[in-house]
Amino acid sequence: MEAHVFQKDWTSTTASARRPSEGRLTAVPPKLSLECRIDVLFLLASSAGTTPEGFLRAKAFVKRFVQVSLSEDSRTRVGVAWYSGELAVAVPVGEYRDVPALLESLDSLPFRGGATLTGSALRQAAEQGFGSAARTGQARPRRVLVLLTESPSQDEVAGPARHARARELLLLGVGTEAVRAELEEITGSPKHVLVYTGPRDLFHRIPELQGKLCGQPRPGCQARSLDLLFLLDASVSVGPENFAQMQSFVRSLTLQFDVNPDVTQVGLVVYGGRVRTAFGLDTHLTRAAVLRATSQAPYLGGVGSAGTALLHVYDKVMTVQRGARPGVPKAVVLLTGGMGAEDAAVPVQKLRNNGISVLVVGVGPVLREALRRLAGPRDALIHVASYADLRYHQDELLTWICAGEWGCARPQCPWGGYSA
């Protein structure tokens, strides 16, 4: 049974007459952290036409969206602005300490009343709302402005909307049927408009908004059960700086998976002069915990043996007692500089014979013949020129992990036939 978190709901039309602590208990949707790298500015109407109740609904919608969409490892950054006759940017995009600080800023936004000058607000938000994110010299993430309003604008919106879109902003509109046509004019497409029929229906639009914000299929094996182990060469031949590059690469890969006991489990083993399980498959139940633990994995030094490390994986990690799940596909990704791989051909075949797939990622001037023997008949080998270039091979590695065609060479791969 799915666990739910409960919080106060004060989104009814009488919400303004009640303190948040006096609301009804309703289930918060399961957390679905946004995976795409985007900057989002929510623009909330706070005019007389919207009404205090409508403004409270808009704030509650944004709060709920933030709670279910942002996590510690999320690459999405959020900002908030509100308007009536004038625009006020409460939180420029990304300029908040953490999610609780962002929610606190939302709570403090007062209702303003007055005219609904949406056109003026759009122009100002496009120029001011994205803060330092718009001034960075680095590759800029996709920028999205989400307008929430229940009141038709009292000024012209077509020109300001064209101005915002010319600044490479994606415009999305959330509102009632009364403003559908205007939102379509602002966003430039009916597909960019989310219409709700009542206070409760507004919150049902959150998954739809999440889909429109990212707009592309999420990478990784998001819906596939998988036991995934990373085996990192932490020997003196790699060195601490290159080992740190490996850690960063593993963190980046982990972002592409839905880490929880029902979908993807992730473990990490490091080896050098000795072999050490940094964390087992069932040690960390969330992606954020895996990311933290990966950063804390020790560099060991010494002379490494990939064969010894692979036997350790077989005997002490990929077992039911250590959290491996019967019937679930299993993959080991070995990242190595190539030294110490001469003794690994027999252990790697032992893993494959038990339905555990092994991909070898060799970095730098590796011992190619030794790694080819590890790759096996299916040529499960990726060669990377340098540790700094690992990031350019992420898609290739994800394709291998998620394609589902790897594993043992038998007609029926014995998932769950691994050592107990």
From TrEMBL:
<dbReference type="Pfam" id="PF00092">
    <property type="entry name" value="VWA"/>
</dbReference>
<dbReference type="InterPro" id="IPR036465">
    <property type="entry name" value="vWFA_dom_sf"/>
</dbReference>
<keyword id="KW-0677">Repeat</keyword>
<keyword id="KW-0245">EGF-like domain</keyword>
<feature type="region of interest" description="Disordered">
    <location>
        <begin position="1"/>
        <end position="24"/>
    </location>
</feature>
<keyword id="KW-0732">Signal</keyword>
<dbReference type="InterPro" id="IPR050525">
    <property type="entry name" value="ECM_Assembly_Org"/>
</dbReference>
<keyword id="KW-1015">Disulfide bond</keyword>
<feature type="domain" description="VWFA">
    <location>
        <begin position="227"/>
        <end position="401"/>
    </location>
</feature>
<dbReference type="InterPro" id="IPR002035">
    <property type="entry name" value="VWF_A"/>
</dbReference>
<feature type="domain" description="VWFA">
    <location>
        <begin position="39"/>
        <end position="213"/>
    </location>
</feature>
<protein>
    <recommendedName>
        <fullName>VWFA domain-containing protein</fullName>
    </recommendedName>
</protein>
